[in-house]
Design a protein that fits this description.
Elements (H helix, E strand, L loop, with lengths): L3 E5 L9 H5 L22 H5 L5 E5 L10 H27 L3 H24 L8 H13 L3 H13 L5
Antiparallel strand pairs: 1-2
Helix pairs in contact: 3-4, 5-6
The structure holds iron/sulfur cluster (SF4) (2 copies).
């Protein structure tokens, strides 16, 4: 099996199609906009050619997660909590203010806090594809999913990800 494969981020893809011209296997030319894993040989040509930085080369198998000290995780969680509270406060200002500058500042504050929370979550071991947290999260989604198509997608993800924590 290939060690790495290409993944396209559709949100930043500017659709100039350079990756289509350089791909030796046609893996980038799909109707869904996703790169076809079964055709990708991991050569990296698309990633080098992409002017938007929309293609990343990712490993098939992730290394084992570095486990963190309980104290570090507890402190990080506390910090995440405070970021979430600040985000809520900024949201309150955003919703209750009629002043444009205040609103813009509040919006920037909401975004900055959300980004910091996400970074902190990653730092504390959440949201890594190979972590037990991700597996637990996907399984909880599966329990709540009430549409068959959604269930199938979640089951597929659970099968695909190599949880190794
Ligand atoms: S080269 Fe990059 S920006 Fe262009 S279509 Fe491919 S992924 Fe999108
Ligand atoms: S890594 Fe190579 S084979 Fe895979 S999609 Fe990109 S250009 Fe095609």
């Amino acid at each position: 099996m290939n060690k790495i494969r290409a993944v396209r981020n559709l949100r930043i893809c500017s659709k100039d199609c350079l990756c289509l011209y350089v791909c030796p296997t046609g893996a980038t030319d799909t109707e869904t906009g996703q790169i076809d894993f079964s055709k990708c040989i991991g050569c990296g040509a698309c990633s080098k050619a992409c002017p938007s930085g929309a293609i990343s080369m990712v490993p098939y198998q992730y290394p084992k997660q570095q486990l963190k000290d309980e104290l570090v995780i507890a402190k990080l969680n506390k910090l995440i909590q405070s970021k979430a509270e600040q985000e809520q406060m900024a949201e309150h200002i955003y919703n209750s203010s009629n002043n444009n500058i205040e609103k813009q500042l509040a919006k920037a504050f909401i975004r900055a806090n959300r980004l910091m929370s996400e970074d902190l979550y990653r730092e504390s071991g959440f949201m890594l594809p190979q972590s037990k947290n991700t597996k637990d999260f996907l399984e909880s989604l599966l329990e709540q999913a009430n549409e068959e198509i959604l269930k199938k997608d979640i089951e597929k993800l659970i099968k695909l990800l190599d949880f190794n924590e």
